């Protein structure tokens, strides 16, 4: 979807159309959830501190987020997807992969399917979507951003090499600023230059990630669309009204542990057929916006919000508690989910049953 949250707000309030809009609470502690294309002209982007966004665009209009409404529109869009395929892998409220190898309609091609989906979204929601059509997920992802907003980009199999060759390596999934710098040190700035390096050389320098880089440079991605994509992490976080020292954060950790645990129960239930989390994660953001994380995979899985909070507080004690350090955000999360039956089976392997 194109500037999804902001587009929903502009659709529902005609006075916002054609104006720079940020979906965010106004104030020093807020960040931008989404920015309209009119706001992006000024450099406003999602995840940007709201105060910085306002400095970039003094006429910026702030609209508080309404996630209930956004989720309702997202469900409406997913229903459109489901008319065409059952293989839908949602990534967020506004983005998904669709495998249309065996479509539910008689449309002649993936391109025709993408055109039909975009047309239905426009007709039924009065919103626009951009689509990428390609032989695999990573190429489709790049293509979906290619002609935004309201665009369609098709990469046919015989076009893959030519499409990738001039791209900066930073467009490849998983290549962030650090990896980009490492590749630049080898004289690699584009995908085409990456392709000239032998697999053995890349593996020697980067291990298994070197093989992945080699495959991406060739346009290879074997990852399937996963309709039942398991939750990787459930978390709750909060930004404080004022920056706090580490020794004042415990009440907030315990409150957020309650929220995270409630979310875990809603999503995964309880009992032998539930899913359990192996790892507890504590996230902190400093007053200068540095993010710190601490995690622990305990021998005994947390079985309550209280147990989760105790572990998260213990993780806090692993953080440097210098008196001059202040924190603006804290989050508590659960990750590493496995089936409860599998967890019980692993426990059985190490139980003492009285046998030598």
Automatic annotation (TrEMBL):
It is an enzyme of class 2 (transferase). The record marks 5 as: Substrate discrimination. Residues 1-176 form the UmuC domain. Its cofactor is Mg(2+). The active site is at residue 95. InterPro entries: DNA/RNA_pol_sf (IPR043502), DNA_pol_Y-fam_lit_finger_sf (IPR036775), DNA_pol_Y-fam_little_finger (IPR017961), DNA_polymerase-Y (IPR050116), DNApol_IV (IPR022880), IMS_HHH_1 (IPR053848), Rev_trsase/Diguanyl_cyclase (IPR043128), UmuC (IPR001126). Gene3D superfamilies: 3.30.70.270, 3.40.1170.60, 5' to 3' exonuclease, C-terminal subdomain, DNA polymerase, Y-family, little finger domain. Mg(2+) binds at residue 94. One of its GO terms (molecular function) is magnesium ion binding. PANTHER family: DNA POLYMERASE KAPPA (PTHR11076:SF33), DNA REPAIR POLYMERASE UMUC / TRANSFERASE FAMILY MEMBER (PTHR11076). Monomer. This is DNA polymerase IV.
């Amino acid at each position: 979807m194109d500037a999804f949250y902001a587009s929903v707000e502009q659709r529902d309030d005609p006075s916002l159309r054609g104006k720079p809009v940020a979906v965010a609470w106004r104030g020093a502690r807020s960040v931008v959830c989404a920015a309209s294309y009119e706001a992006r002209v000024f450099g406003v982007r999602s995840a940007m501190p709201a105060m910085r966004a306002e400095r970039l665009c003094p006429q910026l209009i702030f609209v508080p987020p309404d996630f209930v409404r956004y989720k309702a529109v997202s469900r409406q869009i997913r229903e459109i997807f489901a008319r065409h395929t059952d293989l839908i892998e949602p990534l967020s409220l506004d983005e998904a992969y669709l495998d249309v190898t065996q479509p539910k309609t008689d449309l002649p091609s993936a391109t025709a399917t993408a055109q039909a989906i975009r047309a239905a979204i426009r007709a039924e929601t009065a919103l626009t979507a951009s689509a990428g059509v390609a032989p695999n997920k990573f190429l489709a992802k790049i293509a979906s951003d290619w002609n935004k907003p309201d665009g369609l980009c098709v990469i046919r199999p015989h076009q893959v090499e030519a499409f990738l060759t001039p791209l900066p390596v930073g467009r490849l999934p998983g290549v962030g600023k650090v990896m980009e710098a490492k590749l630049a040190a080898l004289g690699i700035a584009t995908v085409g230059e990456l392709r000239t390096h032998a697999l053995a050389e890349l593996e020697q320098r980067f291990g298994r990630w070197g093989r992945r880089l080699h495959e991406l440079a060739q346009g290879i991605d074997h990852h399937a669309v996963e309709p039942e994509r398991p939750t990787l992490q459930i978390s709750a976080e909060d930004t404080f009204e004022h920056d706090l020292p580490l020794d004042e954060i415990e009440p907030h950790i315990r409150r957020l542990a309650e929220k995270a645990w409630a979310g875990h129960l809603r999503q995964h239930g309880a009992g032998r057929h539930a899913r359990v989390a192996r790892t507890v994660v504590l996230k902190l953001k400093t007053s200068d916006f540095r993010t710190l994380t601490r995690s622990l995979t305990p021998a005994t899985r947390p079985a309550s919000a209280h147990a989760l909070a105790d572990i998260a507080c213990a993780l806090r004690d692993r953080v440097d508690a210098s008196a001059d350090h202040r924190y603006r955000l804290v989050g508590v999360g659960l990750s590493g989910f496995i089936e409860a039956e599998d967890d019980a089976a692993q426990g059985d392997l190490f139980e003492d049953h009285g046998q030598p």
